[in-house]
Specification:
The chain is built from 10 helices and 20 strands. By secondary structure, the chain is α/β, with parallel strands linked by helices. It has 2 domains: 338 residues, Alkaline Phosphatase, subunit A, CATH 3.40.720; 52 residues, no CATH class. The strands form 5 sheets. It has a 10-stranded mixed sheet with strand order 10-9-8-5-11-3-12-15-4-16, sandwiched between helices.
Length: 428
């Protein structure tokens, strides 16, 4: 389909031309959905058959970590950089930043974004020295969009107020916002199935307010302007999210492009603190906003028939900065340098090539929202060191209730801590 590189054989002087067919890429990110919410991850509280199937047909990651809050995670995901480099404030994307939308457009992709934007600022944050702060979808590298919370808020669920590149801002009485996003994504794919496309779908589900979905008889008479926000609806919102994922995958299959489409699903941070779930028969309260495992450990699934081995389980560390370099290597076999991204491409892990896994994950957390504290830390799957010096054993204390005394730890832990200290100093 597209000629991207030439390989010279070591066994012959003849030049062999190898073509790389650029795959379509769909990146879906659920809102406030921790690792514990998916059936395939051991959830006893919710059923997610479509996502479970996606995992069985592809690769399920067990150690993907985000930041604890939505905007910092989104900025990191879209730019491939740690937040101390470019996070200018809650609900804002620095207009000078280059996103995966820009990069993929440069490689010939048609780009589309649907769902939650929240990157143009709000309230007093919209102005800095008299100027609006943030980035519009087109300026962030997207050809078309259908979004909630671009420059007006309104409802995201029933009777949604949405902004689209074709119709501008309008309300959709009686409709459910998440349905419209999937309708628009599917229409975009039908129009662009014969050329490489990139769909970024930052869902509004499962963020509060917790409200009835169209599967619930209460939806018909539900007042979208009410102050309803009841966690009892969280379970059905998870299940509706799963159905929407199923609709997207079904459309890709109907279009006959499934084997040339990489689909990735990830959460943006931990589950809401008002929600308590059961995973592997143990209760876990959501910890969105906080830097514990319950606030940062998110589900991640990647599926690409013929390229990713079915039923794969990946226990390696994945950082949100890793997505941009992975998308570029997937799209164009290009490796981004450290001057462009802090991330490490996990593309080789997807397709079974040789790779060096991450040794640690770094997080600079300056939320600029609520009463959450600024924190910096480095972790691997077992140990976590904060810049303050607090040390935790994540294998036995994921909620970080028992800080350890470094001097009392065995030599291998002290050696690990020294590595973490060097990382913290490097990113100072």
């Amino acid at each position: 389909m597209v000629l991207l590189w030439t390989v010279i054989s070591c066994k012959s002087e003849k030049k062999e031309v190898e073509t790389h067919q650029q795959p379509n890429i769909i990146l879906i990110m659920a809102d406030d959905l921790g690792f514990e919410t998916l059936g395939v991850n051991g959830s006893n509280s919710y059923t997610t058959p479509k996502l479970d199937r996606l995992a069985r047909e592809g690769m399920r990651f067990t150690h993907c970590y985000s930041t604890p809050l939505c905007t910092p995670s989104r900025v990191q995901l879209m730019t491939g950089k740690y937040n101390f480099r470019n996070y200018i404030g809650f609900g804002m994307l620095d207009p000078n930043e280059k996103t995966f939308g820009h990069y993929l457009k440069e490689e010939g992709y048609t780009t589309f974004v649907a769902g939650k934007w929240q990157l143009l600022g709000n309230g007093h944050q919209q102005e800095l020295a008299g100027n609006r702060v943030g980035t519009m979808p087109n300026a962030a590298g997207f050809d078309e969009f259908c979004l909630w919370q671009v420059d007006e808020r309104g409802s995201r669920y029933k009777d949604p107020l949405l902004s689209t590149s074709k119709k501008g801002i309008q309300e959709y009485p009686g409709r459910f916002g998440p349905d419209i996003f999937v309708d628009e994504i599917n229409a975009f794919m039908r129009s662009n199935k014969d050329q490489p496309f990139f769909v970024y779908y930052p869902m509004v589900l499962t963020h509060d307010p917790f409200v009835p979905t169209p599967e619930n008889p209460e939806f018909m008479d539900f007042d979208a302007n009410s102050k309803t926000n009841d966690p009892k609806y969280f379970g059905e919102m998870v299940q509706y999210m799963d159905r929407l994922l199923g609709r997207l995958v079904a459309e890709v299959e109907t279009l006959g492009i499934r084997e040339n489409t990489l689909i990735m699903f990830v959460g943006d941070n931990g589950t809401d603190r008002d929600v308590t779930s059961v995973i592997n028969n143990e209760s876990l309260k959501g910890h969105k906003g906080y830097t514990t495992n319950a606030g940062t450990h998110v589900p991640f699934i990647a599926s690409w028939p013929g390229h990713i081995k079915s039923g794969s389980i990946n226990d390696n560390l994945i950082d949100f900065t890793d997505f941009l370099p992975t998308l570029m290597e997937t799209a164009a076999q290009k490796k981004l340098g450290q001057d462009v991204t802090d991330g490490l491409s996990f593309y080789p892990q997807l397709v079974g090539e040789d790779y060096t896994p991450r040794d640690w994950i770094f997080c600079h957390y300056a939320p600029n929202w609520g009463k959450f504290e600024n924190k910096r830390y480095v972790q691997d799957k077992s140990w976590k060191l904060y810049e303050s010096g607090a040390l935790y054993d994540l294998s036995s204390d994921g909620l970080e209730q028992q800080p350890l005394v470094l001097e009392e730890q065995p030599p291998h832990v002290k050696e690990r801590v020294e590595t973490f200290k060097k990382v913290l100093a490097e990113y100072r």
